[in-house]
Amino acid sequence: MLTRRSLLKTTALAPFATYDQKPLATVKPARLKPGDTVGLVCPAAPAYSREEVQVTQESLVAMGLKTRLAPHFYDRYGYLAGRDADRAADVNAMFADPDIQMVMAMHGGWGCARLLPLLDYELIRRNPKLLVGYSDITALLLGIHTKTGLATIHGPVGSATWNSYTVDRFRRVIMEGEPVVYENPTEKGDTLAQTDDRIWTIRPGTVRGPLVGGNLTVLCHLLGSAYVPDWRNKILFIEDVSEDIYSVDRMLTHLKLAGVLNQLSGLVFGKCTRCGPGSGGYGSLTLEDVLIEHIGPLNIPAFAGAMIGHITDKFTVPIGINAEMDAEKGLIRLLEPAVV
């Protein structure tokens, strides 16, 4: 099976065009309530396992929700879940349907960026509702937020592990409307010092600003398009999976050359899962080396290790919502609810 990484590596980098888009006022979706219906879509890779879909539906039902599959949910076109027009039509239809309160991607893969020119942004603007996902879904989260002002949600896809940690953060943000404080676990377990999910401060400080972000690879491949937000004074959060250290270096260099990094007020690097040195071994730079080299000179508060990414226990993080970030403590605090 082709992976998101192998596909995106074959894609030419977009030119660094500048789009004069006036930032839109943030529109908050309605909170999710028991009895509401979740529209499940496959905007990227196909749904290969019907059992996995059943587990997703049962998990959402266990939270008091109903589910509905998009018309083209089980379509297949090579490594995509059907033709672009049909996948985009499913997303548009879910936003248009008054009986759907949340649109959730079943999983990522590759293909969401192909849908951006085909979405009906005026329809979405008239029917704001929750849009949730991560990984390749970053393209939809950023594109729709940029074009409509809708606060989208970087959170679990349907196929995520719906354990107590992930469900708790999901409920508190989009069902209870709580201005949560995102803080990594601090349990030591059977060791004298904490070994898992540690945070480390790249540059200390506290800053406030709207949150934007998502998957680093997908975000980089949107640069130069009309589907990326105004980066000025934003707190950027990024994550990735299965990337060599040199690839992370290359992408952060891309953000720097595109003028993104020097516009930010703060930066949170989440988890880079399975991001080792590759064949370079100990001759490679480390991830810490790369982050310090690129982020340290920005003179903005920054930390790494947040529970954002391709991991089992994950935060649910809204895009476009104001937050305060304390890099020394490794905390992100929402300053307002993400939903109404």
TrEMBL record:
A single MF term (Gene Ontology): serine-type peptidase activity
Cross-referenced InterPro entries, in alphabetical order?
Carboxypeptidase_A_C_sf, Class_I_gatase-like, LdcA_N, Peptidase_S66_N, Peptidase_S66C, S66_fam
Q: What is the lineage of its organism?
A: Bacteria, Pseudomonadati, Bacteroidota, Cytophagia, Cytophagales
Q: Which residues form the LD-carboxypeptidase N-terminal domain?
A: 38-155
> Catalytic center at which residues?
135 (nucleophile), 239 (charge relay system), 310 (charge relay system)
UniProt entry keywords in alphabetical sequence: Carboxypeptidase, Hydrolase, Protease, Serine protease
UniProt cross-references to Pfam families, sorted A to Z: Peptidase_S66, Peptidase_S66C
What's the family?
Belongs to the peptidase S66 family.
GO BP annotation list: proteolysis
Query: Could you tell me what this protein is called?
Result: LD-carboxypeptidase
